[in-house]
Write a structure and sequence with these properties.
Distance between the termini: 79 Å
Number of strands: 0
Largest sheet: none
Helix content: over 70%
Number of domains: 1
Structural class: mainly alpha
Shape: elongated
Length: 89
């Protein structure tokens, strides 16, 4: 019985620590949007920390990765098209 209580306490403490650390990192990233700093790096790191324990953070991180990937693909396609136009002219 005591081991069950300790196990639950450990799980709860781990969840709280991950939530506090992850939320702090995300909030620092949000502050860095308006102040100098690498916000676009810090926010995903905070979400990755939160994703260790929370499903909603995993979904947000996945959506963020897809958005970045799609944006990069669109950027590459535009650059390739511009290059083709320059080469043809």
């Amino acid at each position: 019985m005591i081991q069950d209580t300790l196990h639950l306490t450990y799980k709860a403490a781990r969840r709280i620590v991950i939530a506090v650390v992850g939320a702090t990192v995300v909030l620092l990233g949000i502050v860095m949007i308006v102040t100098p700093g690498p916000a676009l790096v810090v926010i995903p790191v905070g979400l990755a920390i939160l994703a260790i324990e929370f499903t909603w953070a995993r979904r947000w991180l996945k959506r963020l990765r897809e958005t970045i990937s799609n944006g990069m693909a669109n950027s590459r396609a535009r650059r390739a098209e511009n290059h083709r136009d320059r080469v043809q002219n």
